[in-house]
């Protein structure tokens, strides 16, 4: 069993499975974030954030998600180093001029590092304050959840204030574009790694992946920009 995870195919399989898991998380995360655009003063978003913070299933999934990120990053590093070692001096001769290979596929590790840097900033802005340190902006407010008035943290106020800084919005826009480019290769590659892609489906997954990638990446970027332009309290 251990050889499965130490072989090149096994490592790519782990990368594919962890990548698919993270993409599902991004869909959920984008769906919740889209509630920031509901024009009700943040009540809908606060209700959703309260559900995500208190639901026991979500609390169990959180550490699994963190492990998924760590595994994805470590295996990406290992595979990148192995590929560089295998190519040896050939990579210097060919440079970045390989034909038939997308720019994203040739720069996945760099794109991944960029997304990782953004993720650290994102966690510092929100997760750390919401789960660990607290913040004055998180003062409790009352929202109606399923007909019941419920006291919840004002997560909307924290997000809205954060997106009031233009430099932060610019970082989110750049990160969203970087994520989209990363996913244009990562989407079909993940399905290929788990054995669900062939010559026919490779083309289909490429098209579907491009649509998915830009919807997700530009979705996160647009939410930050719209918050800055139209939703400042």
Secondary-structure blueprint of this entry?
Elements: H1 2-6, H2 8-34, H3 43-54, H4 56-87, H5 90-94, H6 103-106, H7 108-133, E1 140-145, E2 148-153, H8 155-162, H9 166-193, H10 199-230
Antiparallel strand pairs: 1-2
Describe it for me?
The protein has helices spanning 2-6, 8-34, 43-54, 56-87, 90-94, 103-106, 108-133, 155-162, 166-193, 199-230; strands at residues 140-145, 148-153. The chain is built from 10 helices and 2 strands. α7 crosses α9. The chain has one domain (2-92, 102-230): Fumarate reductase/succinate dehydrogenase, transmembrane subunit (3 helical TM bundles of succinate and fumarate reductases, Up-down Bundle). A two-stranded antiparallel sheet has the order 1-2. The chain has 233 residues and is mostly helical. The protein is elongated and about 60 Å long.
Strand-pairing-aware structural class: mainly alpha
CATH topology: 3 helical TM bundles of succinate and fumarate reductases
Mean pLDDT: 87
The percentage helix is over 70%
Which homologous superfamily in CATH is the superfamily? Fumarate reductase/succinate dehydrogenase, transmembrane subunit
Report strand %. 5-15%
Number of helices: 10
